[in-house]
Amino acid sequence: MTYPPVTVVVATFNRADYLARLLDSLGKLDPAPAAVVVVDNASTDSTTEVLEAARVALPVPLTVHRLPVNAGGSGGFSAGVERALADGAEWVWLMDDDVEVLPDALAAFAPWQHKYRCLHGRRLDHNDEPFFWQHRFNAFLGVHFPVPGDVF
Length: 152
What we know:
- Helix content is about 30%, strand content about 20%.
- It has about 150 residues and is of the alpha/beta class.
- The protein has 2 domains: about 5-105, Alpha-Beta Complex (Spore Coat Polysaccharide Biosynthesis Protein SpsA, Chain A), CATH 3.90.550; about 115-150, no CATH class.
- Helix 1 links the parallel strand 1 and strand 2.
- Helix 1 packs parallel to helix 2.
- The two termini are about 25 Å apart.
- The model has no long low-confidence stretch (mean pLDDT about 85).
């Protein structure tokens, strides 16, 4: 199976411990993403040190885009997507800094990337139970279609 290249975009602000765990999990993805872009929303904690360590540890290119002010999650994602696309990204996977990914996550997406233009992965809560998930997305409107019934 061929895996279309995916660039991971992370927005972060003053959550270095969470970010370190996320970056560690990204380093274990198989297949690996094409690149990782982290937008630092002007963090004042140890985020800079975490990102410097990740530059060495990650097996893929890491771009750090530091904003001069905290532009919030949406501002961070906007800057990150803009950067990823400017660097040639074909697929962009957005995530907050307080998540971790499963090693086979990109392999699970791959069969669907040729069929859809947008995917929304399933999330698990702290009890490993399914959390919000909507798999039907209208790219033109930028909204999820409700899924009737128990989709889990």
